[in-house]
Specification:
By secondary structure, this protein is an alpha/beta fold. Helices cover 47% and strands 14% of the residues. Helix 4 links the parallel strand 4 and strand 5. The two termini are 34 Å apart.
Amino acid sequence: MPLLGFGTWQITGSDAVTATAAALESGYRHLDTATVYGNEAEVGRALAESGVARDDVFVTTKCPPDRAGRERETLEQSLEALRTDHVDLWLIHWTTDSADERRAVWEAFVAAREAGLVRDIGVSNYSPAQIDELVDATGVKPAVNQIKWSPLLYDAGLVRELADREIVLEGYSALRGGTLTDATISGIADRLGRTPAQVIVRWHLQHGFVAIPKSTRPERIAANADVAGFELSDDDMAALDGLGSSRRQ
């Protein structure tokens, strides 16, 4: 699973086609979409027309839990829209209040993996306790937990809990919530001659978190992926980590 992916939330219609195409041209090899985004067909079209081999791109989509009982049908619709016979990662998009429903949906996900329709399965917006509940019920742990994440939300305890369970932390909305205008992030960016978005993406990668920045502007899509030419120092990483701690106090 590439640590850098292209997020497509709120990108629809022709914008989704052109943005996804720009991402693939810029070197992204991980695409993140979802049933509720309403853009799987556009993402699939961009991938099919890109000239990039399907096996070279890691594709994630998500199933809303209100499709309980129709998981297989929902997945088959996603595969048709994406023009592929499998996805690399299928996530439960959010949790519900019903433990029985959470278990039943997860069991359907396990069955889809066993049928070869998905390479791996995971969850989104789940707590460690809810993840443990799934594992206790089925013996199968999620590969990934996709959560809202940025330096401003950094929680070392949560990082440890997911690492202890050998579950990948994937962050979404990293470039929202004031991160691009935060003084600490902007200061590091100015000193390094980089954009705040590049600093945030680089922070994810150095921690081993998966980042899925999104944009509809080709120049920003390319810039967000241009993070290999610099490194954040230990002091920079500590300063960024501290933003989340200070907010929780």
